[in-house]
Write a structure and sequence with these properties.
alpha+beta; Phosphorylase Kinase, domain 1; Trypsin Inhibitor V, Chain A; 24 strands; Prot_kinase_dom; serine/threonine-protein kinase; transferase; transmembrane helix; transmembrane
Length: about 625
C-alpha cells in the first residue's frame, strides 16, 4: 500500500487515494483538513508529489521546482489552478485544483479519434488562450498533448502538467540536447534537442489540430526514435487529402502551425487565435500564407498576384541593335542616368564635408561644459528641482505627466535622456511624473455580442480574456457575465474575463431500454445513442433465442459517451431431460420403488410383469414424462 495514503501532508492535506502516476511524480486525491490553508476546509484537491526515488536526482528535482515556479505564476480559467507549493528536503509537492472530468485523449478515443470542425475550433481556441497567458508570463509548456488536457462536463478545458515547462533561457540551455516531451507532438527543433520557444508550443497545437480534424497523427511508427526523425525530416500527408470535408481555411491554419521552420509558424498564440476568429467570421476565407525556404531564407515560396505583376512590369526588353551590329539610341539613355547619379552623389559628399567643417568650428566656439546626467527616477518633482544640476541650471527639465500603476502619484518614473548620458550644459531633459494608477469601471455587458463587449473593454484600457460557459438563459455568443463583475473598479491594464454563452457539449447520454429486442436491433439502438454493446451472456427462458432479457447499466441511467452496455440474451427454452432406463427386474430406474413407475392408464396399481412388455405400463411412464 502507498505509504502516503491516509496521512496528512504538513498537517493540512489528508491523502485519500492515488489517481495518477507520471514519469517523476505521483498525483493523489486529497482533502483540505486544516483551518489556515489556502482553500476552505473540506475542499478536494489534487496533490502532485515527487517520488522518493528521485529526491536525490538534482536534474529531476530542478524540473519539479521549475514546474512549481511555472504554474504558480499562472492564473487562467483554462489552466489548472495551483493553491500551494511545498519544497523541502523530505517532501516536495504541489497542491492543485482537483478536476473531475476526462482527459481530451479519452474524449477523442470515445469519439473515434476524430472531431467536427466546430468542436476542433472550440477546443483549440481554449488551448491557445491558455498558452497566450502562459507565454505572456514567460512560461513555455513544451509537452502539449491530449493526455495533459482535462475536459469538464461544461465543455471547458483545463491544461495541466507543466512538468518540463521552460521559464528562462538559462533553464532551457540546461535542457539542451534532450528531446523532452511526447514524441508524437514535439516540434522538430525539440526533437533535435535545439533551443525551443513559444513557437514550439504552436507546433504541438498544430499536431493536435491535425489529429482532431483527420483522426490520424501526422507521424507514427513503432519506434519513438523513428517518429522523432519523421518530425525533423518528413512532411505529413496532406490534411486536405486525408479529410477533404474540412474547410480549406482550417487546413491552412493547421499547416502553418505545423511548419518545420519556426519562423514560418504563427509567431504567437494570439496570432493563431486571430486566424481562427477570421475563419469563424468567414468560413470561406483563404489565407494564402507565404513560407520561406531553409536554403534561401529571404526567398518566399509563393508570390502574390501583385508581386508577379510588378515583376513583369519591371522586366525590360533587351536593347536592339542596328543593322551594323552596334547598339542604337538605347545605349545613350542608359548612360545619361548613370552620369546624373554620379553628379548627385558628388554634390551630397560636398555638402556633408561642409557640414562637418561648420559643426567642428561651432563646437570649438562653444564654451559650454559637458554634464553627466543624474538619475531622477523615483524622486518627487520638488526633490528633483532641489538637485544641483537642475537648481544651478546645468540642465533644463521639461515635465510630463502620465498614469503609471507601478509608481505612486507625484513620483518620476521615466527620464529622457537616461541617467549616465553626457549632454551639453543647459540641455533640456524630459522627466515624466506618475499620476498613479488609473482606475476604470467595468460596464454591465450582459447579453452583449462578444465583439461589441471586447471593443468596449479595450476602449477602457483593460485586457480582455474570453472564456466560454453554458447558460441556457443567454443566447449563444453573448456575454453571460464578467469577472470582475459589472460596476467594479479595476486598474487600467488589468485583465477582465468575459464569459460567453455557448451550447452545452454533453459527455454523457441516457441508456435506452433494450429488453425484448434482438441483439442486432439493440446494437443499432446503442450506436444511435453513442454507446456500444458490451458482453453477452445467455440464459434459458420462454423468450425466442437471441432476445435481450436484461441489461447493465439499466435503462434510463446516465452513462459516459461510447461506454458499453452488457446484456443477458435468451438461449431459448430449456431442453427436455432424458429419462434413465428401467432396471432389469421390471421396476422403474428412477425411484427404486417398483410400484411408482408402472401405473397403467386404467388406474391399476399392479406393476408390470416383465421389462420386455410393451403394455400400458411403459407407455404411461413416457406419457407422464412428456406431460
Amino acid at each position: 500500500m502507498d505509504n502516503l495514503i491516509g496521512k496528512r501532508l504538513d498537517g493540512l492535506y489528508e491523502v485519500q487515494e492515488l489517481i495518477g502516476s507520471g514519469g517523476m511524480a505521483n498525483v493523489y486525491k486529497a482533502v483540505m483538513r486544516g483551518q489556515n490553508g489556502p482553500v476552505p476546509a473540506g475542499t478536494v484537491v489534487a496533490v502532485k508529489v515527487l517520488r522518493q526515488e528521485y529526491m536525490h536526482d538534482p536534474d529531476l528535482v530542478r524540473r519539479f521546482k521549475n514546474e512549481s515556479k511555472a504554474i504558480s505564476l499562472l492564473n487562467h480559467p483554462n489552466i489548472v489552478k495551483v493553491y500551494d507549493v511545498s519544497v523541502n528536503d523530505h517532501l516536495q509537492y504541489i497542491v492543485m485544483e482537483y478536476v473531475d472530468g476526462m482527459t481530451l485523449r479519452e474524449y477523442l478515443n470515445e469519439r473515434g479519434g476524430k472531431l467536427s470542425s466546430r468542436e476542433t475550433v472550440h477546443f483549440i481556441s481554449q488551448i491557445l488562450k491558455a498558452l497566450e497567458h502562459a507565454h505572456a508570463n514567460g512560461v513555455v509548456h513544451r509537452d502539449i498533448k491530449p493526455q495533459n488536457i482535462m475536459l469538464l462536463d461544461n465543455g471547458q478545458l483545463r491544461m495541466m502538467d507543466f512538468g518540463i515547462a521552460r521559464i528562462s533561457r538559462a533553464d532551457n540551455q540546461m535542457l539542451a540536447g534532450k528531446a523532452m516531451g511526447s514524441v508524437h507532438y514535439i516540434s522538430p527543433e525539440q526533437a533535435k534537442g535545439d533551443e525551443t520557444d513559444r513557437t514550439s508550443d504552436i507546433y504541438s497545437v498544430g499536431v493536435m489540430m491535425y489529429e482532431m480534424l483527420s483522426g490520424h497523427l501526422p507521424f507514427d511508427a513503432d519506434d519513438v526514435v523513428e517518429v522523432a526523425i519523421k518530425q525533423i525530416s518528413d512532411e505529413p500527408r496532406s490534411l486536405h487529402e486525408l479529410a477533404p470535408e474540412v474547410p480549406y481555411a482550417l487546413v491552412e491554419i493547421t499547416e502553418k502551425a505545423m511548419a518545420k521552420l519556426p519562423q514560418n509558424r504563427y509567431p504567437s498564440a494570439r496570432a493563431m487565435l486571430e486566424a481562427l476568429d477570421t475563419y469563424v467570421q468567414n468560413p470561406s476565407v483563404l489565407f494564402e500564407y507565404h513560407y520561406i525556404t531553409e536554403e534561401a531564407p529571404e526567398k518566399v515560396v509563393k508570390r502574390t498576384m501583385n508581386q508577379n505583376r510588378a515583376i513583369r512590369q519591371n522586366e525590360q526588353p533587351a536593347p536592339r541593335k542596328n543593322g551594323k551590329g552596334k547598339p542604337g539610341k538605347k545605349r545613350r539613355t542608359v548612360f545619361l542616368p548613370a552620369l546624373f547619379g554620379i553628379t548627385i552623389a558628388f554634390a551630397l559628399a560636398c555638402m556633408a564635408l561642409c557640414w562637418m567643417i561648420l559643426n567642428d568650428s561651432s563646437n570649438l566656439m562653444n564654451n559650454k561644459a559637458d554634464v553627466t546626467l543624474g538619475d531622477y527616477i523615483g524622486m518627487t518633482k520638488d526633490q528633483a528641482m532641489a538637485t544641483d544640476q537642475i537648481a544651478s541650471g546645468q540642465i533644463s527639465p521639461e515635465w510630463e505627466e502620465e498614469y503609471n500603476s507601478n509608481y505612486a502619484a507625484g513620483y518620476i518614473y521615466k527620464q529622457s535622456p537616461v541617467s549616465g548620458r553626457t549632454v551639453r550644459e543647459g540641455q533640456s531633459v524630459t522627466l515624466t511624473v506618475s499620476l498613479g494608477t488609473q482606475y476604470v469601471t467595468v460596464p454591465d455587458l450582459t447579453n452583449y455580442v462578444q465583439s461589441d463587449a471586447e471593443q468596449q473593454l479595450k476602449a477602457l484600457g483593460v485586457s480582455v480574456l474570453v472564456t466560454q460557459a453554458v447558460d441556457t438563459s443567454v443566447a449563444s455568443g453573448a456575454v453571460i457575465r464578467t469577472d470582475p463583475a459589472a460596476g467594479t473598479q479595476v486598474a487600467a491594464g488589468s485583465t477582465v474575463i468575459l464569459y460567453i454563452s455557448r451550447p452545452q457539449v454533453s459527455t454523457t447520454t441516457k441508456v435506452p431500454s433494450l429488453t425484448g429486442m434482438s441483439v442486432d436491433d439493440a446494437r443499432t439502438l446503442l450506436v444511435q445513442n453513442h454507446l456500444g454493446l458490451g458482453s453477452q451472456s445467455e440464459e434459458y427462458s420462454d423468450q425466442p433465442a437471441g432476445t435481450v432479457l436484461s441489461q447493465n447499466p439499466a435503462a434510463g441511467t446516465t452513462a459516459k459517451l461510447n461506454s458499453r452496455v452488457n446484456v443477458v440474451v435468451s438461449a431459448g427454452t430449456a431442453p427436455a431431460q432424458e429419462p434413465e432406463q428401467p432396471g432389469s427386474d421390471g421396476t422403474s430406474g428412477t425411484t427404486g420403488e417398483g410400484s411408482t413407475g408402472g401405473e397403467s392408464t386404467g388406474g391399476s396399481s399392479e406393476p408390470s410383469s416383465s421389462s420386455s412388455s410393451t403394455g400400458g405400463g411403459i407407455l404411461d411412464w413416457w406419457s407422464s414424462l412428456l406431460g
